Predict the structure.
Amino acid sequence: MPAPDKNFIRDAFDSITPRYDLLNQVLSFGMSAVWRKRSAEIVLDDPDFAPRTILDLGCGTGKFLECFLRRREQQVSASVTGAQAPGLRRREQQVSASVTGAQAPGLRRREQQVSASVTGAQAPGLKIRKWESVTGVDFSAAMLQKARATVSESVLWLREDFDALPFLEASFDLVISGFTLRSVQTLPEFLGTVYRILTPGGKAVFLDLTRPRHPLARLLFYPYLKFLLPIAGWLISGNRKAYDFLSGSVRSFPPPEKTLQLMNEAGFRECETKSFSFGAATLIIGTKTAASNDP
């Protein structure tokens, strides 16, 4: 199922904006907030990744971006008070193992990280700081208006099209996008643009609805997706076509492996996925190669 006309998508999202967040929670049985929060934790708790600039493409009402802002705020607060920074507990186990025997290669830096987390100091090169710049982009004026009212942090909100993003090469350390890949007209070109605007070593992070693989989950998911979701979305939002599109786009969206393949073709490396709720949603992550390794 190809992505429909941009005007249809924009008009559809404009019309459902007032109840969009409520619908997401109801139709995902409360799991959409969990998926967004867990995604931010997975990305920002990586002790080897400390982005300073972030862009949310297709930001909607700002809920996904808000999770990343809150997680960074928790990390900065922990570093100031001397509490153990999120994501470093497992590293402590690695260092403990290195003490009992010969230190394995690559663990010395982990020891620095754990030592820093205990003393309140910051590991070399991984200082957690507040975001230097935060940007949210969407082509729905109604969504952006609600995002401004929802997110209290300082954010540059821009109404732009995916096909004509106004950003220079290597502008952002982290590009995120929640539940938007299915609306992209030409995915290879979109991924190429994301790769271009990322800094070397930066990450692209996509969270989207996917089809479960577990047989029992599939048995329950498909009737819900095809029949119940469009009807419930119509009754709550008043827009049947928007949720017919959502249902059809999830059913026809390529599996995460295909997106990983396209990301590799665009130049991304260290591509990986994380499934949530038996595969009903999937987090897809790719890293832009360092400058010296760029093709």
